[in-house]
Amino acid sequence: MLSKVKLLRCLSLQQAPFCLKSICGEDYANSLNGVSSVLINAFCTVAEPLDADTSPAADELPELPDWVKSSGEEGRSKKFKDDNFVPPSVSYWIENHKIHAGDVDMKSVVNDIVETDIDKVSEVLKNRFESPDSVVKALDGCDVDVSEGLVEQVLRRFSCDWIPALGFFKWAEMHKAVTHSADLYNLMVDNLGKTRKFDMMWELVGEMKDIEGYVTSKTMTKVVRRIARARKYDDAIEAVDKMTLFGVEKDITAMNMLMDSLVKQGSVEHAERVFFDFKDHIPPNSQTYNVLVHGWCKIRQMDKAKATIDEMKKQGFHPDAMTYTTIIESYCRERDFRKVEATIEEMKQNGLHPSVVTYTVMMAALSKAKETEKALEVYEQMKQNNCSPDATFYSAFINALSQAGRLKDSDAVFEDMSRQGICPDVATYNTLIYIACKNLQEEKALNLLKKMEEDQCKPDLNTYAPLLKMCCILNRMKVLSFLLSHMFKNDVGIDFGSYALLVSRLCKNGRHDRACSLFEEMVMKGFVPMDCTYQILIKGLERVGMLEEKQRIEKLMLWAQKS
């Protein structure tokens, strides 16, 4: 293995130009997933989450992500009893953050700091509403400057809570007596799809249809991807079929987008059906075949992937760098490195060279397979081929070193990025935060979050997920409160997986009252708790004799299931 010195020398040789009133009040109140890195999609190269002992996509799906699940750390939390402990190096930052995350009613907190329009609006929207129309009434008399930026920030901050979001959206348009921009409509459409309010989503798209030029391929892409993410594959196909009714052309771009959405959400079979249904009147292109190759490789059906490539060639399309990258990633996952090398050679023979995307996919796959030596060799190959690394490659590189337990080396690589002229992005920080949290290095993890803030690198759902889990494991209630406030202030909404994690962990740690508050908040936002989350809470309440709360939770669950 490379020593730290050798590792840094190699790098230097190539320059590259979350009501939780009882926890934190309601600061987060209406507003998480794991490490974000890259498995490149064969059609459009959009980054997909890398399963590095964690699986992100839980913000809209009713399955628990891996970071919520037990990781053999149950006994360790007993060692940590100080709820109010804050690591010294971040204590000043946490204690003096713009919004204080103490166990206080959020209204009193907001009243102390309400100076900006977003805070004035949030003070209203933090309450519970039965419908968007009740939100509109509550906002009457709200003295704010309704700008495009304010509407966008509110829609992002309340992206997981559709009632206040849609209510504000309607109120804001009436208040300024000017139609929202197409971008704001698209954002609201996406929020409704995210919370699976598909009937309302289509109703909003219908409103957009009446405004010339508002419904575009961008709108329909958001619609189709949200429907596919809900595993409503046939509905996603139907959405594309009726695109023309909204004035959007059903062309090869739409076909590829639909197939890509189906493949990403686990149904290459539906994508193949679309291919056969459309190909006679919408001629496929190389991207179409790449989507299918990616889909078959994703479910490890290499024979079908190769057959697709053969068909691709028959139709006059040559495999490109993305085709080969998809095959290479699949062989890396199977640890068939002989075929990896053979595929790279075939690439070169066909006049193609591995790109930074190819090397990143190889690094990520080898890291997942715990083939550290070979992962490090990828960097050497990259250097020899004069291919400059980017922030995404460094994220995969750091993850590979960390998976091998080489934390000092991974830190050294992170520090060296700036010297190479590469600024860490949110994925890089998310990788490092995940690693620190996995090893219960709370001070390091929090300092990384602080550095993100200093570098004006906006955190996302994947940033907070491991931090929340770590705080639950260590019983750090004060830090947990701070994080939830920090999420809200960064317009990151609390999602299904985060609720499941926090209800379960708080209950296991004896915080049944807080777990109940969160469970209620979860239901009131329209989420239906998983049975495992419900059972943990019910059994916990029964065990400690909180029978009235147990009955209330049982009624809430019945209401959620019937809604």
UniProtKB/TrEMBL annotation:
Keywords: Repeat. It comes from the Eukaryota. PPR repeats lie at residues 285-319, 320-354, 355-389, 390-424, 425-459, 495-529. Residues 55-79 are annotated as: Disordered. Residues 375-536 form the PROP1-like PPR domain. Signal peptide: none annotated. PANTHER family: PENTATRICOPEPTIDE REPEAT DOMAIN CONTAINING PROTEIN-RELATED, TETRATRICOPEPTIDE REPEAT (TPR)-LIKE SUPERFAMILY PROTEIN-RELATED. This is PROP1-like PPR domain-containing protein.
